[in-house]
Amino acid sequence: MTIDINSDFEFVTNLANSGRNGFVELFLIKYNSNNDPLIYKPILEPQAQNEFINIYLNYFTKPETRNQTQEPFNLIKGDNDTLALLSLDTFERPNTLINRIRNNIECLTDLSSLQLDTVKAYTVRFHYDQTSREVIYFSSIQGY
């Protein structure tokens, strides 16, 4: 998990330079009527995986972006001038969600009935199979 944005940047750069595919996953998250998350996992072709790596690297390529203030995630305070890092032992619900993503538990691969305007968030996971190192980013989707 994320310890420091600079080390994450180095990890994703090494992943990009490895020339290997299959280590980028996308998850689309929506919530059912009980407010339980439904996680959809589309299949990403190698070109799409490379695009996600490039989006990440382009965003964090400037040192001033990577060197923004980094602080523990705070549910109450949201600040666009800081990068919020989440410790998994802080909140149960994100920990459960991450475990479902990490282990592909109840992730739906059939997207035929998914309406994109119901998706509330997305997650991108960068990882190597042979190590426990990973970078997982969450973002909400605004405007729906």
What would you note in describing this structure?
The protein has 144 residues and is an alpha/beta fold. The chain contains 4 helices and 7 strands; from the N terminus they run αββααββαβββ. The chain has helices spanning 5-18, 46-60, 63-66, 92-102, and strands at residues 24-31, 37-40, 69-72, 82-85, 107-108, 121-127, 134-140. The protein has a 5-stranded mixed beta sheet. A two-stranded parallel ribbon has the order 3-4. A hairpin with a 5-residue loop joins strand 1 (24-31) and strand 2. Helix 1 (5-18) packs antiparallel against helix 2 (46-60). The protein is globular, with a radius of gyration of 15 Å. The model has no long low-confidence stretch (mean pLDDT 81).
Compute the number of strand runs: 7
The dominant shape is: globular
Major β-sheet profile: 5 strands, mixed
Helix-strand pattern: HEEHHEEHEEE
Share of residues in helices: 25-40%
DSSP strand content: 25-35%
The oligomeric status of these chains comes to: single chain
Structural class: alpha/beta
N-end to C-end Cα span: 29 Å
Over all CA atoms, what is the radius of gyration?
15 Å
Arithmetic mean of pLDDT:
81
Summed up, the helix count is: 4
- The largest sheet has its strands arranged as 5-2-1-6-7
Low-confidence parts lasting 5 or more residues at pLDDT below 50? none
